[in-house]
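Sanity check. The docking grid for zinc ion depends on where the pocket ends up, so I'm generating a full predicted complex first rather than guessing from homology. Inputs follow.
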Amino acid sequence: MTFSRAIKIAPSILSADFADFGREIQAIEAEGADWVHVDVMDGHFVPNITFGPPAVAAFRKHVKTVMDVHIMIAPVDPYIDAFAKAGADFLTAHVEAGPHTHRTLQAIRGAGMKAGVALNPGTPAEAVEHLLDLADLVCVMTVNPGFGGQKFIDMTAKVRKLRAMIGDRPVHIEIDGGVDPVTAPLVAAAGADVLVAGSAVFKGGSVANPSAYGANIRAIRAAAEGAL
Ligand code: DX5
Ligand code: ZN
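Predicted complex below; grid placement will be based on this.
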């Protein structure tokens, strides 16, 4: 996987049909997804529960691109090896999930994955300033994590600050929450390169009608690239 700042669209399967993940993953990839974003929630760090490592391992069999696993769980460290075994390419943990994110990022890389660190909307860019040499991705949440379909919270000033802090380091900036063709250009112009989108990708489509997924992905990509 060579590093690139080209725009990547990462559909979140949180908006997929939970009874049909395999075919949903195949459909979004066939329709142009660059990465597949997998939201793990524990009902403790966030007020919702999704799925754990065994389900993620089952998704892996269908993912041909990049499996981007966003863990909204606390604690993180006891589960790192399980997500490595499940086949995560990127494993992104929250800086708010515990006191030792520095150690967590080392452990994620040590387990053979790319390491991501996510920031809630209320967390400043400076919280990750001393973690950037240990990170492959910084995820800027533009909603409070826990649910799909929420309204975008404008974090463009934070994205700009992070982009300057990152400089020449090969660290992706990912945006997660409320990304659609209207909000994508704002964050792309500020320096984001990975755009997670759940409801805006899956709306109007299904495994029986996957072309809507393709049209949605192309609309987000075109809007973002138009801002560069
Ligand atoms: C929210 C998740 C997101 C979510 C995005 O906690 O981390 O990945 O699925 O969904 P939309 O794009 O609908 O805001
Ligand atoms: Zn997410």
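Relevant for the grid: The chain has one domain: 8-225.
Also worth noting: The chain has a mean pLDDT of 98.
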